[in-house]
Write a structure and sequence with these properties.
The chain is built from 3 helices and 5 strands, in the order ααβαββββ. With 137 residues, the chain is α/β, with parallel strands linked by helices. It has a domain at 40-127. Helix 2 (42-56) runs parallel beside helix 3 (84-93).
Length: 137
């Protein structure tokens, strides 16, 4: 039995050595985000990219559908107001996105609570960090 295992191991090693070497991996450059021309729009630019990805790839969000209306609360989950200039920049970049001051203005609570007109209500998170996005990566 030992002899058969030794022969099998030798054959496998020889077969492994006979293979052609794998081609060298082609380096793929990592995407680098271009910084906003105006640093004050950094948060808006980040929100635009996150919302665009979330809303533009329904297979990756928790609903697997496109929404006819998209409402975004005008303050973050931490209670920090989203600056009016940032709200405008986001709305300009993403068709159909509107900001609301009160979640109850778009949430119907009769029966099972839902956003009216088949929409979605999004609360943005607070952006932490202060360095240049993707710097040195």
């Amino acid at each position: 039995m030992r002899r058969m295992m030794l022969v099998l191991a030798t054959v496998l090693l020889a077969a492994g050595c006979a293979r052609e070497p794998a081609p060298a991996a082609v380096p793929v450059p990592s995407p680098v985000l271009s910084p906003s021309p105006v640093a004050e729009h950094r948060d808006a630019d980040i929100y635009v990219q996150v919302l665009r990805r979330y809303l533009g790839t329904p297979a990756e969000n928790s609903f697997a559908q496109n929404f006819p209306t998209v409402h975004v609360l005008d303050r973050t989950s931490g209670g920090t107001p989203v600056a009016p200039a940032d709200q405008q920049r986001i709305a300009d970049e993403l068709t159909g996105v509107t900001f609301v001051a009160d979640r109850n203005s778009v949430v119907v609570t009769e029966g099972c609570a839902h956003v009216k007109d088949g929409g979605i209500l999004i609360t943005l998170g607070t952006i932490d960090g202060g360095g240049s996005p993707a710097a040195g990566r």
